[in-house]
Amino acid sequence: MAKQYYNGGSVTECLQRTETISKSYAAGTPLYFKAQLLQLDDFLKTGSESVTIVGLDGEEFEITRDSRNDVWQCRDGFVRRISVENFYSPRSALGISYTSNGSGFDYPLAGIQAEYATYQSNWLKSTPYQALQKILNSSLAKLDITNIIAFGLGSLRVGEHASRSHTQHAAVLTMASTIEKLMGRKVDCYVQDPSYNTVDAEFLNSKGITILEDPHGFLNTNSNTLVFSVCPNVPVKQIIADMTWPAAMIWDTVDTTEEQREWRTEVFDDGEAYRVSPYGTDPDSSRVREMVQHYDHLTFVDKDEQFTCLTVYTRKLPMLSETGIEMSVKL
Ligand SMILES: C[S@@+](CC[C@H](N)C(=O)[O-])C[C@H]1O[C@@H](n2cnc3c(N)ncnc32)[C@H](O)[C@@H]1O
After folding, report:
1. Contact by Cβ (8 Å): 25, 92
2. How far apart are CA 214 and CA 219, in angstroms?
3. Protein residues whose CB sits closer than 6 Å to any atom of ligand 1
4. Residue bearing the CA closest to ligand 1, atom 20
């Protein structure tokens, strides 16, 4: 009989557990792997009440369906966030977090089309666009890229807070057309973000971009993929580092050194004090740092602040998959 999903425990128990998991990670045990992503995906699609998965400590445990769910998201950049503070998800990298499908916004297609046209036109005239073009032209020619998979670019809005998402989607098409010119053939464009709604899907389809449901962006990433992500609320870097390494990544710049950060206490609007993690939702880890050593990198400076701080990583050497052997993390 599998244990129930652990939810709490004494400080000593949590410290022991986090130490076990840290050692296991340092020894090279993958936190994220295709079989488990497929198993969880299957669980949510088939409607079964619970699923048993192997925890990071090697023991099986059970996740029970939450009747409110309609879509799941990977959760927690586990390794950087590992701490006695992580009482709520101490055993698995793959939390299932329950959310509503779609962004909750209900903009008309015509509004999104008009907004996109404006932001795309601004993007194509911008200095960051020229800088990105230059980097792509100088670094991608050596690679065989057949598809782009982007994570967490956000639902397309109208009005306030619309610019980043529109500009980032326009950048996907810039990447595709640059690669198509370099390689002389078509590149397929995919995006994964649980916040897309049906209007986003219609609009993106019209631009030749296909939405993949979480976790199929991760599952479809292969050694010919260009992965693109900007501040995603999911640990894209850690998941990709544990699975098939892509041809290139354009994602939030990886810190080359591990810096010590502290949790802090903050009083929120409700007057309660909460412990706040110093780590973002797509944190680096030793494995992510090791992975990017195998890639050349050029930082993309974005003065217009539509992307925060991105680096273009391109594979240095032919990967094992090109010789017929599946490439995954080698530590
Ligand atoms: C902080 S927003 C960043 C949006 C945009 N890239 C930007 O820079 O303004 C994080 C995004 O990650 C998305 N996200 C959350 N879970 C995700 C998942 N499992 N796969 C892909 N995207 C996810 C959220 O829906 C949200 O759109």
Report:
1. no
2. 9
3. 73-74, 151-154, 164-165, 168, 192-195, 214, 230-234
4. 193
Q: Taking Cα atoms as reference points, which of 40, 34, 67 lies closest to residue 53? A: 40
DSSP alpha helices (H): ranges in the chain?
A: 11-26, 34-46, 78-81, 109-125, 127-139, 163-183, 198-206, 216-220, 236-242, 286-292
- Is the pLDDT at 62 greater than 80, yes or no? no
- pLDDT one-digit tens code per residue, 191-248: 999 889 999 999 999 999 999 988 889 999 999 999 999 999 888 998 899 899 999 9
All structural domains of the chain: 3-99 (no CATH), 109-323 (3.40.50)
Alpha carbon of 221 to ligand 1 centroid (Å): 18
Which residues share a beta bridge with 225?
A: 147
Distance from residue 149's CA to the centre of ligand 1 (Å):
13
Task: Please give the average per-residue pLDDT across 51-75, as a whole number.
Answer: 59
pLDDT digits (tens, 9 = 90+) for 70-115: 444 444 333 333 333 333 343 444 444 444 455 567 799 999 999 9
Give 294 or 72, the one with higher predicted confidence. 294
Q: Does residue 133 contact residue 178 with C-beta atoms inside 8 Å?
A: yes
Euclidean distance between CA atoms 156 and 150, whole angstroms: 14
Atom of ligand 1 nearest to the CA of 168: 6
- Best of 70, 195, 250 for a ligand 1 pocket test (most atoms within 8 Å of beta carbon): 195
| Atom 6 of ligand 1, residue of closest alpha carbon | 153
Q: Which pTM was predicted?
A: 0.85
Residue 203's nearest CA partner among 160, 156, 164, 167 is: 156
What's the gap in Å between 69 CA and the centre of ligand 1?
Answer: 18
Mutating to test ligand 1, I would choose from 165, 193, 238 the residue with most ligand atoms within 8 A of its C-beta, which is 193
